[in-house]
Design goal:
Elements: H1 11-14, H2 16-26, H3 58-74, E1 79-83, H4 85-88, H5 92-99, E2 104-108, H6 114-123, E3 133-137, H7 140-144, H8 150-167, E4 172-176, H9 188-200, E5 209-212, H10 215-219, H11 221-226
Parallel strand pairs: 1-2, 1-3, 3-4, 4-5
Helix pairs in contact: 6-8, 8-9
Keywords: Signal
InterPro entries: SGNH_hydro, SGNH_hydro_sf
Organism: Pseudoduganella armeniaca
Length: 235
């Protein structure tokens, strides 16, 4: 069984550093797509993709979801990765290197917000799965594509975690913090992410849900000096 504890780092936890590094390449663009003052309710609006983007049509989203549904129907998954483009974007070689020893499946879809993930959990044969571990990273698009406030995004993430607990009561959930944006620590977007993560951290119950924040690795000069694998820039 895959476990997470303060005493023992597991391969899944260590690979969070790679996840943070990949995020620097994948997460930044979404923040530019919402016009100032434009807000769209997403957090708990359970819906499939309803907005087309230059980088993904609605039909493409539905095709990706059909692919995930077919994979879920087979049920042969021990480690379930769930999220947006940061999860979807793992290069095959990196995925195989980090997770090839597990029966892992990538259920990330670029551009997803919490409402999209909630819809997929309810409409994609996800009840056929019995994962031992769920790796969740979601929320940045609630900011960037929906223009929501930290409190709204927290409600959406809480709902996703609750749905996962209901679907997979025996699974352990690795709940990743939303990764930082903007290089300046006092930038409003950066502060919003920090506010959100302080709330999300409270969902860690030490039994079923385990919160991890790899943002300091990607943005702290001190962390980068200690860990050569840390990225050298922020989003």
């Amino acid at each position: 069984m895959i476990t997470f504890s303060s005493e023992k780092e597991t391969g899944m936890r260590k690979n969070g550093w790679a996840l943070a590094a990949l995020a620097l390449c994948a997460a930044g663009a979404a923040w530019a797509d919402t016009a100032p003052g434009q807000v769209r309710q997403c957090a708990n609006v359970v819906e499939p993709r309803s907005v087309a983007y230059p980088w993904m049509s609605i039909e493409r989203w539905h095709q990706l979801n059909r692919d995930k549904t077919a994979l879920a129907a087979k049920g042969n998954v021990d480690v379930l990765f769930l999220g947006d483009s940061i999860t979807e974007g793992w290069p095959k070689a990196e995925w195989d290197s980090h997770f090839g020893q597990y029966r892992a499946a990538n259920f990330g879809i670029g551009g997803d917000h919490t409402g999209n993930v909630l819809w997929r959990l309810q409409n994609g044969s996800m009840d056929k799965l019995r994962p031992k571990v769920v790796v969740l990273l979601i929320g940045t698009n609630n900011f960037g594509l929906c223009g929501e406030a930290p409190g709204q995004v927290f409600q959406g993430i809480s709902s996703v975690v609750a749905s996962l607990r209901q679907l997979y009561p025996d699974a352990k959930i690795l709940l990743n913090a939303v990764l930082p944006v903007e290089p300046k620590p006092d930038h409003p977007r950066r502060l919003n992410v920090a506010r959100l993560n302080r709330d999300v951290a409270r969902l860690d119950d030490g039994k079923h849900v385990f919160f991890r924040d790899y943002g300091p690795c990607s943005c702290s000069r001190t962390a980068r000096s200690r860990r050569p694998s840390c990225p050298t820039t922020c989003i």
